[in-house]
Backbone:
């Protein structure tokens, strides 16, 4: 199922933001899975070699170019620069009105501005900030802070297996917060599911630590 999921994501869906999030989470899981220093060094070297190969074969360069090259049309997917402009618009809206940002628009999930039409859900956390202002830090920021605390606590009490698993989820959340944030109506159910996974993992880790001690 894992390989099938990667096939669908890479070959069929081709969403570059998910490439970054998924492979970033996988890299963290691979690096942190082995607590043995020798195995960690070997794994780290293999990851670095893999990155060098991707750089030399221009895979990474081509990927970044496809994201930021403004010569490509919107339909072809070069939306990186558009997202950056949207982030600038939403951040300025937050600075003008920190309490509510642009607020809920009659147009739905997009805002019509002098600079163009920008979608809140295309710009991740900055999009939420632009829409609902400081409440974004409370609604989404507190969740990330709680998850970060749980992962740090599990590593501190040497519950490495569970801590590594949750760290993978946490890295996924942070990386999708750039543009594919799990907050909108199509993905928001991921928030309570992940919160439950983190809290259960934290409870099991603390229980196991108490029993072993």
Residues:
């Amino acid at each position: 199922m894992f390989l099938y999921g990667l096939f669908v994501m890479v070959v069929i869906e081709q969403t570059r933001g998910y490439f970054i999030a998924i492979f970033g989470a996988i890299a963290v899981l691979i690096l942190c899975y082995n607590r043995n220093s020798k195995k960690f060094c070997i794994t780290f070297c293999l990851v670095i070699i893999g990155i060098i190969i991707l750089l030399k074969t221009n895979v990474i360069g081509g990927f970044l170019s496809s994201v930021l090259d403004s010569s490509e049309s919107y339909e072809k997917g070069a939306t990186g620069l558009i997202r950056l402009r949207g982030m600038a618009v939403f951040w300025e809206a937050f600075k003008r009105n920190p309490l509510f940002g642009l607020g809920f628009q009659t147009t739905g999930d997009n805002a019509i501005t002098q600079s163009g039409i920008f979608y809140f859900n295309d710009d991740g956390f900055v999009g939420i900030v632009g829409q609902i202002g400081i409440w974004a830090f409370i609604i989404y920021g507190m969740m990330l802070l709680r998850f970060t605390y749980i992962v740090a606590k599990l590593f501190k009490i040497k519950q490495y297996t569970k801590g590594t698993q949750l760290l993978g989820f946490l890295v996924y959340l942070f990386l999708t917060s750039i543009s594919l944030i799990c907050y909108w109506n199509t993905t928001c159910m991921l928030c309570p599911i992940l919160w439950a996974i983190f809290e259960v993992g934290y409870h099991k880790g603390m229980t196991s630590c108490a029993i072993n001690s």
